[in-house]
Write a structure and sequence with these properties.
Elements: E1 2-6, E2 12-17, E3 28-30, H1 33-38, E4 42-43, E5 49-54, E6 59-62, E7 69-72, E8 79-86, E9 89-95, E10 109-111, H2 118-128, E11 130-135
Parallel strand pairs: 3-10, 5-11
Antiparallel strand pairs: 1-2, 2-5, 4-9, 6-7, 7-8, 8-9, 9-11
Length: 139
């Protein structure tokens, strides 16, 4: 299943490829202040793919262990996704709250990555996040 969407201002576009129906997925809500304040609900599928196309350089923030980058639309400042490079490969999860097209998801699952060690986080992300194709201006 392939889903295309955009941030509220439509300047950042994304495409997700899922291996199951949308109704089979439960987004994850991190319990840190950063994610809570943004209403983030992360969707991923390690067998799928996430492509994000930014019209200009995204706003990038690191939080907590600073292992992952949270990418925001440079215009509307909406949190689009979280990414991390692991062994030279880019993995990530899409903030499903960014678009109403994800209304068919299951109930949100609460998670607490801050309770994991740095290595445990990386292993979990590698096993649960999308492979990511990040398209930045000029590339």
């Amino acid at each position: 299943m392939r889903i295309e969407g955009a941030c509220p201002c439509r300047s950042t576009r994304f495409e997700v490829t899922l291996t199951r129906e949308l109704s089979d997925y439960s987004p994850r809500a991190c319990d840190c202040d950063f994610c809570i304040s943004r209403g983030a609900r992360f969707l991923s599928d390690p067998e799928g793919k996430l492509t994000v196309s930014f019209s200009s350089v995204p706003v990038s923030l690191k939080q907590g262990s600073e292992q992952a980058e949270f990418l925001h639309c440079p215009l509307c400042k909406c949190l689009i996704c979280v990414i991390c490079s692991i062994n030279g490969n880019l993995y990530g999860a899409l903030n499903s709250s960014v678009s109403q097209i994800f209304g068919g998801l299951r109930d949100t699952i609460d998670v607490s990555p801050k309770r994991l060690s740095a290595n445990e986080k990386m292993e979990r992300w590698r096993n649960t996040w999308f492979p990511v194709d990040l398209q930045l201006p000029g590339t």
